[in-house]
TrEMBL record:
PANTHER family: METHYLTHIOADENOSINE/PURINE NUCLEOSIDE PHOSPHORYLASE (PTHR11904), PURINE NUCLEOSIDE PHOSPHORYLASE-RELATED (PTHR11904:SF9). A purine D-ribonucleoside binds at E217, N259. Pfam families: PNP_UDP_1. It is an enzyme of class 2 (transferase). This is Purine nucleoside phosphorylase. Keywords: Glycosyltransferase, Transferase. Residues 42-295 form the Nucleoside phosphorylase domain. GO terms for biological process: nucleoside metabolic process. Phosphate binds at S49, H80, R100, F101, H102, A132, S236. Belongs to the PNP/MTAP phosphorylase family. Its EC number is 2.4.2.1. Pathway: Purine metabolism; purine nucleoside salvage. The purine nucleoside phosphorylases catalyze the phosphorolytic breakdown of the N-glycosidic bond in the beta-(deoxy)ribonucleoside molecules, with the formation of the corresponding free purine bases and pentose-1-phosphate.
Length: 305
């Protein structure tokens, strides 16, 4: 049992579509949280690798270790803390995930995206997704922030998609447009915030994609990804973004460029988790200010909802 099997009766044909996400276990997770926190956030944040420190921004937190939440996966990746916080960030109620789930941890794409559905049932309307990624675009520097304008869903090309399977309209429509998946107003806001902080030169915009991992890419794979028009490569985010858009959330996502992707066979150095963590650590104070101000902006917007 992974906690996501059907609990209600269904037709034989739907029983055969057994890989899709079901409402009841997700709702059980959401109800568990709602019954144990007084907060009713409309804004959520997912912390990427090495970025769990964003959680220190949350005041008066109610803390939920993932292992205590029914049906919820547990983080096993480096730099992921495996706990959910509800509290106040810059005066705004938030739900913040200190740790996400990756295919390389052995979770299905449905489980990797499941927390976003929990967010939807909790009442989240705006989501900030962060990740650590390798810079494929040769103009990018280590430490830059790339705002996602778009993504390439490589897994989706072969049918590995958290939205595949049975349709449950309580999670949104089955078919929907994704040309504005990443809300451009938050990109404009983030650019303005970074310029105000004197960080305009580190603010980039581009296309993200994820591979399954856990290994970093070979030079040949990196050259292929670059040919596909991908600016930053990671191991997450795409499934969360699609799920958030399906649920009707307003989405902002960014990659911290933690390392340059090395395509030259003559270079001895290679990507490493140590470098990813070091860059994340070096940029954490700036990112806290940026995320704090974005949350404040999202909070003002969602107040009326
Ligand atoms: O959770 P994210 O996407 O930030 O994690 C990236 C991809 C790998 O999990 C890890 C490599 O260090 O960072
Ligand atoms: N796939 C991938 N994920 C990363 N996360 C941080 N850096 C990288 C990288 O170079 N490749």
């Amino acid at each position: 049992m992974n906690g996501l099997e059907r609990t209600d009766g269904d037709s034989p044909v739907n029983e055969m579509r057994n890989q899709s996400m079901h409402f009841e276990p997700v709702n059980e997770s959401a109800q568990y949280l709602l019954q144990r926190t007084k907060y009713r956030p409309k804004v959520a944040v997912i912390c990427g690798s090495g970025l769990a420190t964003l959680g220190t921004l949350v005041e008066k937190p109610d803390v939920f270790p993932y292992e205590d939440i029914p049906n919820f996966p547990v983080s096993t990746a480096p730099g992921h803390k495996s706990r959910l916080l509800f509290g106040i960030l810059n005066g705004v109620q938030v739900m913040l995930m200190q740790g996400r789930f990756h295919l390389y941890e052995g979770y299905s794409i449905y489980m990797c995206a499941m927390p976003v559905r929990v967010m939807h049932l909790v009442g989240i309307k705006s989501l900030i997704v962060s990740n650590a990624a390798g810079g494929l675009n040769s103009k990018f520097k280590v430490g830059d922030v790339m705002m996602l304008q778009d993504h390439v869903n490589l897994q989706g090309f072969v049918g590995i998609n958290p939205l595949a399977g049975r349709t449950d309209t309580r999670f949104g429509p089955h078919f929907f447009a994704t040309n504005h998946a990443y809300d451009r107003k938050w990109r404009a806001k983030c650019r303005q915030i970074m310029e105000d902080l004197g960080l305009g030169d580190h603010c980039r915009e581009g296309v993200y994609s994820m591979v399954g991992g856990p290994n970093f890419e070979t030079p040949a794979e990196l050259r292929l990804l670059r040919m596909l028009g991908i600016d930053a490569i990671g191991m997450s985010t795409v499934h969360e973004a699609l799920t958030a858009v399906q649920c009707g959330m307003s989405l902002f996502a960014f990659s911290l460029i933690t390392n340059a992707c090395i395509t030259d066979y003559e270079v001895d150095q290679g990507a490493s988790v140590a470098e990813v963590m070091e860059t994340a650590h070096n940029r954490e104070e700036d990112l806290k200010i940026i995320v704090g101000r974005l949350v404040a902006a999202m909070g003002s917007e969602t107040q009326a909802l």
